[in-house]
């Protein structure tokens, strides 16, 4: 397992510290190495790929993996230019536990300097240094990359009575849930996936969504259901599984009444179930832990420069699903990995390095420094 270099003192000032050892953290760690930056420390409060390991057992990637490196296109779920989860795992749609194994293998192969079980409780910038206070030490660095992600920071209290519900991120297996009649609050990917998984176990499911995501005409899977989910949903309904889809259902409260859970929507409509409702209302994100270091934009996400740097704190960069530019949402691996080289190049330049090796990222579609190409929708 990759570990922190034992010869490095606890109070040494690193060139770069990456917070988070998931897909974004491991990926940017390798990109920084490829940029010629040798002093990079990746830290995580749990383990490498911990969020993926916490996924429900039945949950898999929406994007397919394929070992296409030899002919040019990169595996959609790869976090580096020279690896393929499909090849290493033998899975087209990896589950979370398997993908965590892939990330560990990447970290080991590239000998990433990783310190685990390091929980950051405070971050501040003093002069030209960042100081990260953990539960047992203080770490220092010139550049800080926040890649801690979202999954471990669920939106659990979006309305009164939400504490009666169980968030999807807290479900370890849908097969182990008892009961026959469920309400799922939220109609995006996690909500529809929950409905599909439960219906496969012959459970009755009612999905309450604000919008009819299952009828969206957008080709961007960041704002509509992915093709994979749409296909599975249609197959489940055709098989006679009991999934009821309700749109325009903006749930504002959940109460209990005579042994049942009652969800109320704006406008007065109600739905009830004897089982604890499943909350599929998304995530708050880890960036809120350092909100004093960035200017928030719509949704509370950081406002970023063209190089994914905080507009208010020089030297603080963001990687992963937290990245937003105008209307573009970089929430999938194949999207946010395209920004790794942009961040690595900027930091390398400030350190006086030419980072010529990063040009190979461009050849593999992992160097998106022109965001104007993100405007197009598919025509057919």
In total, the number of strands is 17
Order of helices and strands: EHEHHHEEEEEEHEHEEEEEEEEHHH
Strand percentage lies at 15-25%
Mean pLDDT: 92
Give the count of structural domains: 2
Class from helix and strand fractions: alpha/beta
Total of helices: 9
Estimate the global geometry from the Cα principal axes: globular
Helix content: 10-25%
- CATH class term of the largest domain: Alpha Beta
Quick one: biggest sheet? Answer: 7 strands, mixed
CATH topology of the largest domain: FAD/NAD(P)-binding domain
Briefly characterize the structure:
The model is unreliable at 1-9 (pLDDT under 50).
List descriptors.
five-stranded parallel sheet, alpha/beta, disordered N terminus, FAD/NAD(P)-binding domain, globular, 380 residues, 9 helices
Could you walk me through the main structural features you see in this protein, from its secondary elements to its overall organization?
The chain is an alpha/beta fold and 380 residues long. Helix content is 21%, strand content 20%. The protein contains nine helices and 17 strands. It has helices at 23-34, 50-53, 85-89, 96-109, 189-199, 227-238, 333-336, 340-350, 359-363; strands at 13-19, 40-43, 114-115, 120-126, 129-134, 138-146, 166-167, 181-185, 204-208, 243-246, 251-257, 260-265, 270-273, 278-279, 316-318, 324-325, 328-329. The strands form four sheets. Strands 1, 2, 3, 4, 5, 6 and 15 form a seven-stranded mixed sheet that branches. The chain is globular, with a radius of gyration of 21 Å.
Layout of strands and helices, then pairs:
Blueprint: E1 13-19, H1 23-34, E2 40-43, H2 50-53, H3 85-89, H4 96-109, E3 114-115, E4 120-126, E5 129-134, E6 138-146, E7 166-167, E8 181-185, H5 189-199, E9 204-208, H6 227-238, E10 243-246, E11 251-257, E12 260-265, E13 270-273, E14 278-279, E15 316-318, E16 324-325, E17 328-329, H7 333-336, H8 340-350, H9 359-363
Parallel strand pairs: 1-2, 1-6, 2-3, 6-15, 7-14, 8-9, 8-14, 9-10
Antiparallel strand pairs: 4-5, 5-6, 11-12, 12-13, 16-17
Helix pairs in contact: 1-8, 5-6
């Amino acid at each position: 397992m990759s570990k922190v270099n034992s010869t490095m003192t606890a109070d040494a000032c690193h060139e770069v510290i990456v917070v988070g050892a998931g897909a974004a953290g491991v990926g940017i760690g390798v990109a920084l190495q490829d940029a010629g930056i040798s002093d990079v420390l990746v830290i995580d409060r749990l383990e490498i790929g911990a969020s993926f390991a916490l996924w429900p057992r039945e949950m898999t990637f929406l994007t397919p993996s394929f070992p296409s490196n030899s002919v040019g296109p990169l595996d959609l779920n790869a976090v580096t230019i020279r690896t393929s989860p499909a090849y290493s795992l033998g899975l087209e749609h990896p589950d979370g536990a398997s993908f965590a194994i892939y990330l560990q293998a990447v970290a080991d192969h590239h000998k990433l300097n990783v310190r685990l079980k390091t929980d950051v409780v405070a971050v501040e910038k003093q002069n030209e240094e960042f100081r990260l206070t953990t539960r047992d030490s203080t770490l220092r660095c010139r550049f800080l990359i926040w890649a801690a992600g979202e999954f471990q920071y669920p939106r659990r209290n979006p309305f009164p009575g939400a504490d009666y519900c169980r968030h999807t991120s807290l479900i370890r297996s849908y097969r182990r849930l008892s009961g026959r009649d469920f309400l799922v609050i939220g109609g995006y990917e996690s909500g529809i996936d929950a409905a599909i998984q439960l219906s496969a176990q012959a459970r009755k499911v009612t999905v309450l969504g604000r919008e009819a995501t299952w009828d969206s005409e957008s080709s961007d899977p960041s704002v509509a259901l992915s093709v994979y989910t749409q296909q599975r949903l249609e197959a489940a309904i055709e098989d006679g599984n009991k999934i009821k889809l309700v749109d325009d259902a903006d749930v504002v409260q959940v109460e209990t009444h005579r042994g049942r859970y009652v969800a109320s929507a704006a406008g007065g409509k109600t739905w009830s179930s004897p089982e604890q409702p499943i909350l599929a209302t998304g995530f708050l994100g880890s960036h809120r832990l350092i909100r004093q270091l960035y200017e928030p934009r719509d949704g509370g996400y950081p406002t970023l420069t063209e190089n994914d740097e905080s507009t208010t704190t020089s030297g603080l960069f963001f990687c992963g699903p937290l990245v937003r530019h105008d209307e573009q949402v970089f929430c999938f691996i194949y999207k946010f990995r395209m920004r790794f080289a942009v961040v690595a190049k900027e930091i390398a330049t400030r350190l006086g390095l030419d980072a010529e090796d990063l040009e190979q990222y461009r050849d593999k579609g992992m160097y998106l420094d022109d965001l104007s190409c993100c405007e197009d929708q598919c025509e057919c």
